[in-house]
Amino acid sequence: MTFAPGKEAPAPARLTVDLDALADNWRLLATASGPAETAAAVKADAYGTGLAPAATALHRAGCRTFFVALPAEGLALRAALPEATIYVLGGYLGRAAGLYRRHRLQPVLGDMAEIDEWLADAGADAPAPAIHVDTGINRLGLPVGAARALSGDHERMAALAPALVMSHFACADDPGHPLNGRQVACFSEVRGWFPGVAASLANSAGIGFGAAARFDLTRPGISLYGGRARERDDHPVRPVITLTAEVLTVREVPAGESVGYGATATVSRPSRVAIVSLGYADGYPRRLASDGAEAAVRGRRFPLIGRVSMDLLAVDVTDGPDVRRGDRAELIGPAVPLAEVADRAGTIGYEILTSLGCRFERRYEGG
Ligand SMILES: *Cc1c(COP(=O)(O)O)cnc(C)c1O
After folding, report:
1. Which residues line the pocket of ligand 1, CB cutoff 6 A?
2. What is this structure's pTM?
């Protein structure tokens, strides 16, 4: 973060992160994970919610294993949680063995050349890696054949001493997709080649596939943060983030006049328009205004009008005569669910969360 509003420079927009809801969501997923250990994916600044506060709250709830994407994220997490198990999903990056050793970052290795780099560099006291096997997503991970060959290479296996063998679903958000069952079956076979090594397959949505998909460790991300893991969620989680911003002014717009850039929206009646201090530079998608997006003010929802600008957006509050300057408008939160915002923007909650900017005040509740 290069810029942070604070006490001396108050921000009219605010991101509230409910750490109790986050902890509750983890407990819910831990229960749904049955006897499997429940980890947490905290990459990308804990999906935009803030790595240190989110991870600390998850740790307090009982989470002991965390997944980040990059070594820099692992470093920041290590500073917050000296004892946690930290896996780096990106693998062994930059051949920075000293860094991985010093901070006990466990690389998720998914390429034979990468495995050999790790074995050449890591040394005897190296943190135990995970082996990532690709069971159908064709992204990171050893092809199944290579994993089988590795498992029979006793010298390499003894040197690697992996703590985890894992794979990742391609279509977990679509429970009816036939690839899910094929991946479960394939991974069941793969994990058998690595006796005594813990196995992990399920992300948030995968936890809903039943005991056969849970193995020893589950790795939820989006559900922890109040996002929707799939179309119809069996485990409705609590909302975690609330994004609000101040109404800077309410203006009267005569019938026939337009609002905002491009004059794209013309009002057909004398209207009251609330100008709210939040824009696309804050991660609120620019295309939303033209897709029926709404904001909640004083407990009621009103439609956005005109284009979202960089720092501002407009809300038609003609039907809310009591709305006035200084009110807070909720753009995402309990009254305007994250999944709804994502659907309207033609994207997924993951992208909305990880696009949130740094210009608002961040307030942490609970935890
Ligand atoms: C991000 C990620 C997860 C968490 O996925 P969600 O869909 O957010 O639950 C789990 N495993 C891997 C490998 C990931 O990259």
Report:
1. 41, 43, 89, 168, 203-204, 219-222
2. 0.96
